[in-house]
Design a protein that fits this description.
The protein contains two helices and three strands, in the order E-E-E-H-H. By secondary structure, it is α+β, with helices and mostly antiparallel strands. The chain is elongated, with a radius of gyration of 19 Å.
């Protein structure tokens, strides 16, 4: 499974550039199957401060992962993909011709 974390958007204070919220996405791909998740993480002023213009996506992703259980999120995405690979439920009617 290949997992990709991205930062979709940052909310910040205009007075000093303090990032208050990171909006993130996590996408997982395993062959023909995929799953994704979107969320937000809030931040408060800490002991150190990085100017908004100096932030990198990798740095903010690291902050997000510190706040979350990244392994649990990735495990959940793998479970979703596994369920798509071997479904336990189906829909339809028995008298209809299955699609080719």
């Amino acid at each position: 499974m290949i997992t990709t974390w991205k930062i979709a958007q940052l909310d910040r204070q205009t007075s000093d550039g303090l990032v208050t919220t990171a909006h993130y996405t996590v996408n997982a791909v395993d062959g023909d199957y995929s799953a994704g998740s979107y969320g937000t993480v809030g931040f408060e002023r800490g002991e150190s401060f990085t100017a908004y213009d100096s932030l990198t996506e990798a740095q903010v992703i690291a902050w997000v992962k510190e706040k979350l259980d990244a392994a649990e999120i990735e495990s959940s995405l793998q479970s979703q993909i596994d369920a798509k690979k071997t479904p336990t439920t189906a829909t339809g009617v028995p008298w209809a011709t299955p699609p080719a």
